[in-house]
Amino acid sequence: MLTIDVKSRKPIYEQIIDNIKELIIQGVWSRDTQLPSVRQLAGDLAINPNTIQKAYSELERQGIIYSMKSKGSFVASGVDELRKERKEQLFKEFGRILEEMREIGITSREIEERLQEQWKGVQND
Amino acid sequence: MLTIDVKSRKPIYEQIIDNIKELIIQGVWSRDTQLPSVRQLAGDLAINPNTIQKAYSELERQGIIYSMKSKGSFVASGVDELRKERKEQLFKEFGRILEEMREIGITSREIEERLQEQWKGVQND
DNA sequence: GAAGTGTACTAATTGAGATAGTACAACTAA
DNA sequence: TTAGTTGTACTATCTCAATTAGTACACTTC
Hints:
The structure is a homodimer of 125-residue chains. Chain A has 125 residues and is mostly helical. The first copy, chain A, is 58% helix and 6% strand. The structure holds a DNA duplex (30 and 30 nucleotides).
């Protein structure tokens, strides 16, 4: 379910945060789904429980999950907000890339072509 | 000309590498332009000469610049390749983002609109 | 010869991230 | 009741990449 790359430049606890957010956005975990316990997940991923704790704390601080002593940690509402947030994030990044493409002299024609190419065979519009 | 952010997660020497590549791509520095000396740049940026040396070494390894003992460091050819490389990089990133947008349910219509928005007032195609 | 080049070392420092270990309060199930 | 599991808190230590500090050498230029 969750995977990490110890060699990545991105810290493990951030990978876990992103990973969990992704699972929620994808709908794999829905509201009130119980997350693996700190110790359980630490065991599965073969990393230190403190690292998991750090990820969970941050997720709770962001309102993504909620934790109850001696009960466990669970997915908070936030799915729609999470989707919206990611959407804004993507558009922002999208804009940044377009900007750089423009600077380097890539034409809108080229981009349109690439867009068509990528979207072919997909009927979501 | 060159700026760095010591607080960035990206190492200083990498920032310098990217910074110099950018200057070349933008045409600010052309072939055989002499780069600031290791000590000079270190002084300007208020960082250690070894860090500059590390950046220059990597740039030379990549064939972006060439260095001559007691002469200095200079821009190598590579401008076109650099542009091409960046272009491919951008399209790759572009594709990655489109993919993620599709996964999250953003329509091609939305993207088209964003594209028009960003490209308005620009006549390069 | 003095100043400035790239280059090559070794040693020390820094700081974020991760680990190790222990402990406590509260809930659950046997 | 008791054993096991939960989140949480805390300190100490380790690790590793990045950076700094300092010195030195060979060479060019003026």
